[in-house]
Amino acid sequence: MRPRVRRWRTGVVAGALALAGSAAAAGALAGNAAPGAALTGRTVGAAPAAGSVARGAAPTRNGAANVHAGRVAADTVWLENARIRLGFDARTGALVDLTDRRTGQRFVGAGGAQRLWLLDVPGLPDSSLGPASARSFAWRRLPGAEPGVVLEWRDFGLAAAPALRVVATVRLEGAEPMSSWHLAVDSAGTLGIEQVRFPRITGIPALGAGEELAVPRWMGALARDPSALLAGEDGKGARLEWAYPGTMSLQMVALYRRGGAGLYAASDDTLAYRKTFAVWGEPGGARGYELVHPLPDPATPKAHWAMPYAAVVGTFQGDWLTAAERYRAWGTRQVWARESRLKRGLVPQWLLETGMWVWNRGRSPGVVPPALALEKALGLPVSIYWHWWHHGPYDTSFPDYLPPREGVDSFVAAVRTAHAAGLHAMVYMNQRLWCTGTPSWGPEAARAAVKERDGSVREETYNIFDPQRCATMDVTTPFWRAKYAGIADTVLDLYGVDGIYMDQAVLSLVCWDPTHGHPVGGGNYWIGGFRKLAAQIRENAAPGRPVLLAGEGAGEAWLPALDLMLTLQVSQERYTAPNSGWDPIPLFQAVYHDYGVTYGNYSSLVMPPYDELWPAATAPAEPLKLLDTRFRRQFQLEQARAFVWGLQPTIANFRASQLTERPRETAYMMRLARLRARALDYLLYGEFVRPPELRVSVVDVDLSRVSIYAAQRGGPQVSRGRYPAAIAGAFRARDGSIAVAVASIVDEPVTVSFDVDAPAYGLAGGGTIERISEDGRGRFGRFTDGRTPVELRLPAGGATILVFRKEAHR
Asked: Which of the chain's ends, N or C, has fewer CB atoms near its CB within 10 Å?
């Protein structure tokens, strides 16, 4: 649960709230009613109980009517502190006010959010049940140190559930602009509730110029014009939704106006229950938000169901980093942070020492020698991220990985050669796919596969050249875990590789198979199954041998199980449409940088490879052909993002010849890697903090959209974007010092300036500035107690790190 602040202010103004003539009723409004106190309210259709609701305008701290009072019904139940105000219609329970009190920004339209919750029930009209179906509504205030209210709907007139009762509980979180929301459903009779939608906030107004929507879609994504995305192609509105745990790496979305007020919507689930965050556009330009909770075993009647966690609704002023800081204050105190492998010192030492990853594919001659050449040129440890080593073609032969396509002896010899030079390797093994055309597929595999609602095997197809169907396997089944862990054991112990890259690991699925030993539909079974798989792989390894497990994507719930997470969004432009409406942001790193190691990108100087085992008819004429130098800035942008956002650097499809054929690009890449290696206290172990805002020119960047499937035969799809000529990130070391990493992405000198706010970084009193370069460290200057202007002249492709350290006072 979110920590409680016990020093609070109710926000209730004397005389603004009153109940009919009894001391007990007055005490209820003051927040002192006994837990079993009767609810105050009305039966729908009857006259309001005398004095049972707040009368008149919304109160403020000095008792004056709020400027927005005309938009709110007179009979309103208020819940507020100095920073946030919530108002509920005393007759229906509708949310009629949600206001950030510091700015006056409202997040509910004039009509209010009438359907605060919905129960999805097949067979009912519109397949759902909401507050409007209740013939009785009542409310009461909650006792305790934090103001709260209970809203209760009953008497729905349903023969299948005559005693049905829906109860919502909303509390403020101390003096913060935050509120926690719970919902419980009692006496549901024989209703088969599929999912619950709560809270639902509708009529959210457009916030105007500077509006942004931040979503932790794996690493993070930022919509700089959410109005365009939410309007939909026909202008009638579009719905965007993201599942947690999985696509959403953490439980929060933020809709705000830069520098103004924002809506913060989250949940505080520490057990990784399946849920969906949704934002949509409404006709007229308003927006809606809801949190969707799929129920476990929905066909089974339930006498009682309650949310096993709280939904969180709040307001803030700032931007996506402000929202990340708020979430971090909660998330880093939860079990996944306390038990993260990085924090517990369980990550293999060679991973921490990795200076760069080489992401190559195919037989060992195209993988190990290039890595050896790069390590020699770089002067730092290089690690190998190895795809297409396996026996069958990529994306059509899983999990028949063994033996290696080049033969066991050749493969093992290559691994030993890498080890002799100090290199380490992890190999690709998809964590959830079993292609149904493989010889190994059979009835036992089918029984362990994820099932759709109709009992059929859930399938996915990825290969566009040879579209073979692959079943998604249920990680909770002992059969699949034993199958996968057995292959991993062979690869690790017999072949000698150092780790497994578990593709599609940081995702979860809903399974409807009742024989798998977990609830069907909703629940939190998936993450439990994955943790058992990870533990089984490590337990099977030779005693004392460190085993690295990496996964695709980033996710807080996986921090105790994975050593390394692949965050490819630094290369978003290579695999998404140029006008997608989303920009990559390091939202996951902003919360959990010092709790988990991230790496990876599609940053490449050549066209993608083509698997030798794919159909010859669709093979490109020249795989791995050098890309035009016009895309140099794109390559440097990707490497710069990884550097300033605190990822381990990566290059894909590397060949030793690129050191001479593309000397500028490879020199730039190695310059950043060497610089990073001198500042691991910050760029590996440091806490991500708000970087200073750079004053720098904006430049055109030619972008190639190309991947192993996209644009293979027609050449890269080309677009152009506008980006700053330099970007920055900032990190706090354990000693409290702050490092600002700055990297240029252009091939000419550039001037960068910014201000450092020492008190904001916890460096009040001033101190010294040290400059870290590729060649070493040196004094740069001093900073003052307030804001210190800094100017850097970076050479072509230049980068630097400035360390701000508070001066020790004698």
From this structure: C
97 vs 481: CA distance, rounded Å: 50
Please, what's the b/e burial string for 525-561 (b: 16 or more CB within 10 A of its CB; e: otherwise)? bbbbbbbbbbebbbebeeeeebbbbbbbbbbbbbbbb
d(CA 401, CA 389): 8
pLDDT tens for 650-685 read 999 999 999 999 999 999 999 999 999 999 999 999
Q: What is the DSSP letter of 587?
A: H
Do residues 802 and 740 lie in contact, with contact meaning Cβ atoms separated by under 8 Å? yes
Dihedrals phi, psi of 476, to nearest 5 degrees: -80, -10
Average pLDDT over residues 761-765: 94
- Amino acid letter for position 569: Q
Q: How far apart are CA 151 and CA 173, in angstroms?
A: 18
Distance CA 253, CA 240 (A): 12
Q: What percent of the chain has pLDDT over 90?
A: 84
Residue 695: CA count within 13 A, CB half-sphere: 8
* Alpha carbons 475 and 516: distance in angstroms, whole number: 10
Which residue, among 150, 179, 180, has the nearest Cα to 165 in the 3D structure?
A: 150
- Say if pTM beats, i.e. exceeds, 0.70: yes
Smallest CA-to-CA distance from 469 within 449, 488, 499, 489 is with 449
**Reported confidence tier of residue 441, pLDDT bands at 50, 70, 90:** very high
- Neighbouring CB atoms inside 10 A of 426's CB total 25
- Residue 61 pLDDT greater than 90, yes or no: no
| Mean predicted lDDT score pLDDT of the chain | 90
Beta strands in 516-654 (DSSP E): 548-552, 564-566, 582-584, 597-599, 650-652
Contacts of 520 (CB under 8 A, 6+ apart): 296, 297, 298, 511, 512, 513, 514
Q: How far apart are CA 554 and CA 593, in angstroms?
A: 11
- DSSP state for residue 733 in the 8-state scheme: -
Query: Is residue 720 classed exposed, middle or buried when 0-12, 13-18 and 19+ CB atoms within 10 A define those classes?
Result: exposed
pLDDT exceeding 70 applies to what percent of the chain?
90
DSSP E strands, 666-786? 687-689, 698-705, 717-724, 726-732, 738-744, 750-757, 767-773, 776-783
Confidence of residue 711 (pLDDT cuts 50, 70, 90): low
Q: How far apart are CA 25 and CA 120, in angstroms?
A: 36
From first CA to last CA, the distance across the chain in angstroms is 42
Predicted local distance difference test score (pLDDT) of residue 53: 32
Nearest to 709 by CA among 635, 629, 554, 602: 602
Nearest one of 601, 750, 721 to 669, comparing CA atoms: 601
Distance CA 562, CA 305 (A): 33
Whether the Cβ atoms of residue 96 and residue 88 lie closer than 8 Å to each other = yes
C-alpha radius of gyration, the chain, whole number:
28
Model pLDDT for residues 577-627, shown as the tens digit of each residue: 888 999 999 999 999 999 999 999 999 999 999 999 999 999 998 889 999
Residue 215 has pLDDT above 80, yes or no: yes
Is the pLDDT at 70 greater than 80? The verdict is no
- Choose the weakest-confidence range: 17-26, 79-88, 270-279, 557-566: 17-26
